[in-house]
Records
---
Amino acid sequence: MNARRILIVLLLSILAFSCDSPSHHEVPKAICGTPIDPALTRLLVTSTKEFHEYNRVERSDAITAPCILLSENDPVLEFRFSWDDTATDLMYLATGAGSISRVTAPRGIKLGYKSIVGTDGAISIAKCKTNGGDYFTLTLQVPQISLMDQTHRKDIEKFMRAYFPATLKTLGCK
């Protein structure tokens, strides 16, 4: 009987400690001003450290800017919000020499908007009349995914299928 009580106390102590442990932090329910199901974010972000954002996006000004979700000091999701007068060629952005919108091994997907998904990111564009132009482009880069890792393409696509339309909604795009 004594051993049983000790076991119960030990299990309760472990449970209380693990629930109170600061080593596991929930992913945010909104990223860069866009609500998103944390389960979709968790497909791309495995870190259990504290999350915070570096956000330079001013939606009302519609000026091209970055927004980064960090886990402590490590970038885990990098976004680029961009407004232009003309539609941008997504393959040009994805395969260009710069690193701003580079996506490895891009392929077109049917999302209802022009979109491409790669092994480490995605880019989507939609008509969206704002102060910054007639088109909105969103680039997602997942820097912690290895460029040769082919296993996350579907996860990135699933995330963008939810995140891009939700972002358009926050911008008031029709």
---
Amino acid sequence: MKPTQRLLTVTVVCASLAGAAMADPMSGKDAASLMFSPNDAEVDMQVVDGLPAESAALLEQVVKDYAYYAAVAIVPDADILKSEATMLVANHHSAEAAAAAALAGCNAANTTATPCVVAAIVRPKNWEPRALQLSVEGTLALQNDYGKRGERAMAASPQTGFLALAQGAGAQDAAVAACNNKGASDCAVVVADAE
């Protein structure tokens, strides 16, 4: 196994929405206008006391190619190449959701007294807050698979990162059911069109 492969216990989560209660779903057209390019991302390295500069540089190189929104949580005084607690999650719908998932995974595997911290976040290039944020997977699904006509909906789970699309009569209920059937219990419709 290469050192960079051992560096992170990778958990790729399909997508998750951050934030509290979901607002009313927006139309596909409105949602599409808010999406970032799925091809451009940037790494925001966090200041972490105890993380050597060379480890931070290696970490940045490893995470730069992961799908936004991604986050890495580490035990600062552990060897990130060997620590089972080093956790990377990717393809979430927000940096907050990715950071929470990475911290949860790190804390679950952490056997030291030192608490886990977020060391890196991957966001879309030129990120700014928007009313709806989707992961790379969600963005591509909206662009390529959501459809242009008829009743259609996209549902997503804030906690698990799952998402689902549905088309036809009852699309909203079908999207929520398909999303929850992946193992979630909190899916909500985030994009919907009646025609």
---
Amino acid sequence: MSTAALPNSSSHLLIDLMVMAMRASVMGCKFGLALFIARYLDLSSLGLYGLAAGAIAAVPIVVNLGMNHLLMRDAVTASTSNMIDSMRHYWFFVAFAYTALLTIATLVTILFGTTPLWVIIVAVIMFEHVGNDIFYLLSSLQRHVWANAIGFIRGAAWILVYVPLAVCDASFRSLPYLFGFWLVGGVASVGLFAFLSRSWPWLTSFSRPFRLSVITDAIRRSYLMLLSDLGFITSQYIDRYLITLFLGLKVAGIYFLFWTVGSSATTFLALVLQQKQRPSLISTYRTSGLSAHRQLAWRFLQKSALATVVLSTAVGFAFQVLLPWIAQPALVTQWSTFWLIVAGLAVRYMADFGALALFTAHLDRMTTVTNLASVGVLVLAQLALLPIAGLHGAGAAILVASLIMALWRYWLLFGFPVSSVYSRRADA
């Protein structure tokens, strides 16, 4: 069966509702998990969970060396056989890298008697890496039902099992159990992808000799994407490490809870909007040219801005209603900080849309420059404001840095004549 085949359905509306429900479930479960940790464990455990979650997001960026973005962008217009051949070479490289990391983590655990939690976390990172690849691959192929079903297993189903179990049985209320269930969810999601894509010509592709040149060529072409990704992911997660350094693990737990609430809205929007915006922008640029891409990006920008304001506000008020249930007095004293962080993350989402628009127009160099610059702007803002304003300074730093980056990216997208902007695109 061709990858172009979609499940038969008599109602597109029903499919859209199913996809929306799965996306909302992922957002709600991540939201609920953070509340569970704050309520049934403690804020320090939440801070440690936040640091581990940052590593789970950052390590795949280093491992994939920027190759995944180019592969997913090429998948929009590539033939099935070429797409699968590229992916099997790339995933062979990924498997080799994580085998080495798991071996190192296991040896350190055995030789130094450290907690096996880190071995579990490395395994979670591996399956999150592959799971994200699968999600973006299927999204690029516009297989949104598949992508979201797999994303639901990885991002929500295991939480729906773990949290009720841990509420009923206190022996499950620990980070090793939590990450263990997360690992099971990741394994199950990859297994579901293997089942759904069983008719794809994987065996034909794997029967051919492995060509190292495919990997080396992809790495050569993707160095800009690696730098861009490193800049992007660092700007997303470095603040929690700086807060831990300056204010301690407990305060970092408060920040991570507020960050989780605020980012749940923008994460949902990324799944609802950007999942469809990304391939549409890529296709428009390739088939209709520069002006059409900019016009479409402007329409998407307006839609994204309105949705961001509405959903971020709704999520913020929902958290305010749930706050007494968490029973953590330290959270109440930081209420104004919460809204500052929510506002900062909303503006950051709009800045991230600017990066998406630059990338889909093949402005890889400008995407990289702005992503790297965003790290410097955020770090400078955090270092300036954290020591004097605490968590308020952290929220203000996100807001200021994100506003600067959003204005810069939109200036690059819409402020120059089209010909002068797009003539600087990368050759990738």
---
Amino acid sequence: MNALTALASAAFGSTVYLTTLSTVRWLNQLAPHAKVTGLMVTGMVLCAVIGTIAVASQSAALGFILGAGLTPPVHRWILQRRRHAADS
């Protein structure tokens, strides 16, 4: 397994997670018809990205999953730290 490929894929997985989170938050503010269409398109894009990563190599797939899996808890932790700093 190529460590550099796994690391780069982890960073890409993290970026995909944060981009998807922002997109879904934005779509939730739209009308129901536009929201459903946007979520369907977002899902298709995510499937294409994940499929492409899975075909690339085992280290790329593992790195992508690692990055996408670690980002949500780290993102929540960062947001909580900002709230605590603002309250002080």
